[in-house]
Amino acid sequence: MEDAAAVAGLLWDEWLPGSVRRLIGAALPGGEGDGRLLAVWLAGVHDIGKATPAFACQVEGLADRMRREGLEMRTQGVLGPDRRLAPHGLAGQVLLGEWLEEHCGWEPGQCDQFTVVVGGHHGVPPEFAQVNALDGRGHLLWSTGASRVVWRRVQRELLEACAEEFGVRGRLASWRGVKLPQPVQVLLTALVIVADWIASNPELFPYHPLEVQLSGAQRAAAAWRGLALPAAWRPAEPEGPVEELFASRFALPVGAKARPVQVAAVELARSMAVPGLMVIEAPMGEGKTEAALAVAEIFAARSGAGGVFFALPTMATGNAMFPRLLRWLRRLPSLEGRPHSVLLAHSKAALNDDFTDLMRGAGSVAAVDVDAEGRVWRPSHAHREAAGDLVAHTWLRGRKKAMLSSFVAGTVDQLLFAGLKSKHLALRHLALAGKVVVIDEAHAYDTYMSVYLDRVLSWLGAYRVPVVILSATLTQARRRELLAAYAGTVGGGGGVAREALDAVAAEDGYPLLTAVTAGGVPVVRRPQASGRGTRVRLERVEDGLEVLADRLGEELADGGCALVVRNTVRRVVETARFLRERFGSQDVTVAHSRFLDVDRAGNDKGLLRRFGPPGGQSERPVRRHIVVASQVAEQSLDVDFDLLVSDLCPVDLLLQRMGRLHRHQRGADQADRPVGLREPRCLVTGADWSGTVPEPVRGSVAVYGMYPLLRSAAVLVPHLDAGAGRPVHLPKDISLLVQGAYAVEAGAPEGWADALAQARLRHRRHRDRQAEKAAVFTLGEVCKDGEPVFGWVAAGMGDADDTRAGRAQVRDSRESLEVVVVQRRADGTLGTVPWLGGDRKGRPLGGLDLPLDQVPVSFAGRAAAASGLRLPREFSAPDVMDRAIGELEELYVPAWQSKDSPWLAGQLILALDERCQTRLAGFLLRYSQTEGLEVTRA
């Protein structure tokens, strides 16, 4: 009790962001002083439920000692299954509530909003049914007969002592009239959980102290020094001209100026009396990321936020963002000389060199998940955690605590999990409540993911968390939904007026900045674009490999670099194979998601090296070259091509793809490009254009749906028909095309009405099904102040947030299998795949032995883990997945399933033969360094 309370006080004083302290204090008559007292007291009494027969009977020797003192209790066997009705968290909630009623004069309905913190300290707030089930079973709480009085006296004395020791005796009367907002209840629960975990660590708080006894305060101070948890970020608001701010934070070249969007974003942030939500809509390449970080610094200084979470759509974009985040952090004057915790939050984070560098000196990686209870790991467990999720501070490891780091870049899943009902959800809310949240590529999330995102935004608004949302192609309707989600549910329903939201939704300026505070009125700014622009000529091309190859042969006759984007991996592989036969393997590169992690990272680096910005390190091909890619080319890579060929896709994605066309200036008026490719052109294929209404290829329809494809084609028709006479003006036409494609009452080209109507009906039904499906496990809305968070995560996903099942749930995808690919040699031994290069120390990583009777050496294990691969959707059908897991578990290696094997423990191992082939669940798998994974029916 004393240890947990002392830790809670230190967490409040040294670690908890000011914004969280302020929010808790605002709900109490004594402000932050009361907030600290309440947090310390609740941490002190959180285990009062252990002073009950239901808990004490578990160790018979200790129970006998208690019986000798008059605390009679039945044995564990006699109590039987009934004992499960009184877990110590729920028992503590009941005992604390009765004490407040009987000895402090509280009304029954007033107690629950406080006592639920005790009831939920193991990650799941009790449900009403659980409270009712315990009613009438006093033998679980106090025993029976004469001993009942003794039990109740001991429990009362403990609670009385806590009230005195932790300084709340004189405040309890003042708190009787308080109505704790649900966000405050959640934050207090999370704080108690963290205090409990720290105080329960035997390395910090030894069970058997040395002969020289320490006082409670001394024990806590020694433990805190040993923990060395970095304090929250406390920046001062940056002053001075915007140009100076950007020059100091982002090392702008001499003479470079901040772009109009960046200047407007900073000025808007400075003009807001209270930080809130800012939506930045601007073209690709306008510096939205830098604008968001500059705004985040201002918002953090004004709100008291203690960190930043940067949410991105994919692991690839997260990896690309992480070094940029680190460079920004190193230039922040507020962090000079102060330790701070940083996290790359996705399942492959431990394989990122920038991130692992931060771990050096922070303690050894010796556990797969230090949060978890001791249990045997099997790769087939649906709720197994991804191995290797490491953070820069040793204690902040594991999927439940990692997000508590101050600065985090990661996939948007980590944000969406805050809307997924799951165990220990309160910790994720605490992690977000103390940060500025930046959400990149907001247009990239479908209806299903948007259900989770909108609910999370409503809670962030209730927490008063500053949020910055970035998009190049956001629809007006989605802009309105985001604003309403954040500001519309704050203060028990006192949100933004519908008329104000309608006015914002009608804004058609571009670039556009929109800001709103919790429950406030939206504000709009319309900065100018930077002046950089491109005119892209569109042209239809019939779908067909012969047609494509002939056209590329003509276009690239004098050299040049072309990007061909296909909507499915199957089309990527088929196209690349055909083009290699026509032009030779040396002139064709493949990029898609079905490569080993290490190979995909190498592919990305190769693309950047050859097709990135002009400069001294560029190795741009001097002769013809074709890159055939899937959607991986839409985001994160700063690559530049002379010609774009794209399958028909939703117009916002096509605009993203166009962002890879003439992205950089190559000579005056693009004079360094081949003569025939100095005008940016996009050839649109992937459809039969011969009929009145185009017919997209089947694979594209499976990925995107017919309606978004037809709406995209409809808004592009004027540009396709006019050719050079009506090019797409970037960025001027971006908003016009996006709003036109997604307008509720959109016009249709002549003869398209029936096809569009049918496709629209199917699209609406699909979206309704998505929203209905997402709602099953979505967290509820913020309820009125004073209503306890009973059943807050009831009927949820259990302990499944950042797991295979959890990631599938927030992305509306079937569960997928991730495997570690190794090679089985002719003699039956295993090794890393042979083509891996060297590590940064020059050690070869290919062909390393992976012994079956012991843990592989660390760098061999890491090399194997870097060869991870997500199996395609063919393996996501439940029966196929079960069969595949069964076959993969035949290579279950017990020696690798230990805490000394963090890279391989719990992983599914896929062994390829020396021809890089294998069979799995009725499929033949072939792997190639140049083409990736190919799957065919065996």
- Quickly count the helices: 34
Strand content: 5-15%
Q: Round the Cα radius of gyration to an integer and report it.
A: 30 Å
SS-derived structural category: alpha/beta
Provide the spatial order of strands within the biggest beta sheet: 3-4-2-5-6-1-7-8
Would you identify the regions where 5 or more consecutive residues have pLDDT less than 50?
A: 363-377, 382-392, 489-493
Biggest sheet, in brief? 8 strands, mixed
On the 0-100 scale, what is the average pLDDT? 88
Shape: globular
Could you tell me the number of beta strands?
A: 24
* Separation of the first and last Cα atoms: 62 Å
Helix content: 40-55%
Question: Can you characterise this structure?
Answer:
This protein has 938 residues and is of the alpha/beta class. It contains 34 helices and 24 strands. Strands 3-4-2-5-6-1-7-8 form an 8-stranded mixed sheet, sandwiched between helices. Helix 1 crosses helix 13 and helix 29 crosses helix 30. The longest helix has 23 residues. It is globular, with a radius of gyration of 30 Å.
